[in-house]
TrEMBL record:
<keyword id="KW-0378">Hydrolase</keyword>
<dbReference type="InterPro" id="IPR011059">
    <property type="entry name" value="Metal-dep_hydrolase_composite"/>
</dbReference>
<dbReference type="InterPro" id="IPR003764">
    <property type="entry name" value="GlcNAc_6-P_deAcase"/>
</dbReference>
<keyword id="KW-0479">Metal-binding</keyword>
<keyword id="KW-0119">Carbohydrate metabolism</keyword>
<dbReference type="Pfam" id="PF01979">
    <property type="entry name" value="Amidohydro_1"/>
</dbReference>
<dbReference type="InterPro" id="IPR032466">
    <property type="entry name" value="Metal_Hydrolase"/>
</dbReference>
<dbReference type="GO" id="GO:0008448">
    <property type="term" value="F:N-acetylglucosamine-6-phosphate deacetylase activity"/>
</dbReference>
<protein>
    <submittedName>
        <fullName>N-acetylglucosamine-6-phosphate deacetylase</fullName>
        <ecNumber>3.5.1.25</ecNumber>
    </submittedName>
</protein>
<comment type="similarity">
    <text>Belongs to the metallo-dependent hydrolases superfamily. NagA family.</text>
</comment>
<dbReference type="Pfam" id="PF22643">
    <property type="entry name" value="NagA_N"/>
</dbReference>
<feature type="domain" description="Amidohydrolase-related">
    <location>
        <begin position="54"/>
        <end position="369"/>
    </location>
</feature>
<dbReference type="InterPro" id="IPR006680">
    <property type="entry name" value="Amidohydro-rel"/>
</dbReference>
Length: 372
């Protein structure tokens, strides 16, 4: 079988800190071969004219609950997982953490079992947002599924020594040392969220955390006499923070302030859900957002590409930086050097979009998978 060789030409190539004009991105098989001047493209490469589009790494979403018509927690199946992957690929999201909000142990364990059976390639792992949260900041999470963290419960939840769970959102002020160390021993990335921590509590408990979940949402506020969890994040030297840039979950001016304070520690997530009228989480679409039947704001209606556009057009973040917030920064957090960039040898996960932020081409591991 002949290895496919493709050269994407006539576009603006964004790779980390570098922008290339008049160059081509070379893809051979599953991997990127590098970025070369167009005149240096070997004769055996198929030229693909992207018509002045933006060529960038495939986007990475570390918190999303479903896509298309599938909410994973409402349909815990390999078929739903496959459909979610295909929907996200069409949006230019080539890697993601499939997320489940606080739920019963049986649903969590079913999700782990299904994920391991499916052995997906686009989904990187499961992100469990809960159940070890602070009920005072539960947001759209039902109170009956929020429970204290114990070593015994963690062992029960992850009894099969699963590697499917890659990330957990926890309330850091309620997670004791033994529970935090156990989760870290299981190579789970810990993100602080749904927390009512005071500044002092947050500052002392963030030592085990790698990140903060949806900055500003479902956490103690930034107050001039108690800076809370946001203040602790801003004062921390290395902690990363995800943010939902839809102008609804977080005002665009607050995003601007956050960006000025956090720099390359701030990264994009969608926190996206889909319409669902059954099960624990019934998400109703209301013009530009999702809410529970009681009116509580739930997940967003964003795509990662829309979040990039909002960063550029509503917040004033340069395009190259907005792309990094959706690719290289989340890749750095999960310690993946083979995605989130267009370097020689990296997986050929590539997005091409036009000046209207419309998807033109998507490549996943070197194969064109379609566009919206």
């Amino acid at each position: 079988m002949t290895t496919q060789k493709i050269a994407l030409t006539n576009g603006q190539i964004y790779n980390g800190e570098d922008i290339f004009l008049g160059h081509a991105l070379l893809i051979e098989g599953e991997h990127i071969q590098g970025i070369f001047p167009k005149q240096a493209v070997p004769d055996d490469y198929q030229l693909v004219d992207v018509q002045k589009g933006v060529i960038c790494p495939g986007l990475i979403d570390l918190q999303i609950y479903g896509a298309g018509q599938d909410l994973f927690s409402a349909d815990v199946s390999t078929a739903a997982l496959s459909r979610i992957e295909q929907s996200l690929l069409a949006q230019g999201c080539t890697s993601f953490m499939l997320t489940l909000a606080s739920n019963s142990d049986s649903v969590f364990k079913d999700a782990i079992r299904v994920f391991e059976q499916a052995n997906p390639r686009v989904a990187l792992g499961l992100h469990l947002e809960g159940p070890f949260l602070n009920e005072k900041k539960r947001g759209a999470h039902p109170a009956e599924f929020i429970v204290p963290a114990t070593v015994e419960h963690i062992e029960h939840l992850l009894a099969e020594h699963t590697t499917a769970v890659k990330m957990m959102t926890v309330a850091p002020e309620l997670l004791d040392e033994s529970c935090a160390e156990l989760l870290l021993q299981k190579n789970i990335l810990l993100s602080a969220g749904h927390s009512a921590a005071t500044f002092e509590q947050a500052a002392s408990s963030l030592q085990h955390m790698h990140a903060v979940t949806h900055l500003w949402n479902a956490m103690s506020p930034l107050h001039h006499r108690d800076p809370g969890l946001p203040g602790a994040v801003f004062n921390h030297p290395t902690l990363a923070a995800s943010i939902i840039v839809d102008g609804i979950h977080v005002d665009f001016e607050a995003v601007k302030i956050s960006k000025q304070l956090l720099g390359d520690r701030l990264f994009l997530i969608t926190d996206a859900v889909v319409p669902c009228k059954h099960g624990i989480y019934q998400h109703l679409f209301q013009h530009d957002r999702y809410a529970l039947p009681d009116g509580t704001l739930s997940g967003s209606a964003l795509t990662m590409l829309q979040a990039i556009r909002n960063c550029v057009e509503k917040v004033g973040i340069p395009l190259e930086e907005a792309i990094r917030m959706a690719s290289s920064y989340p890749a750095n957090l999960i310690e993946r050097t083979d995605i989130g960039n267009l370097n020689n040898g990296s997986l050929a996960n590539v997005l091409v979009f036009n000046e209207n932020y419309e998807v033109q081409h998507v490549f996943f591991e070197g194969q064109q998978v379609g566009a919206v």
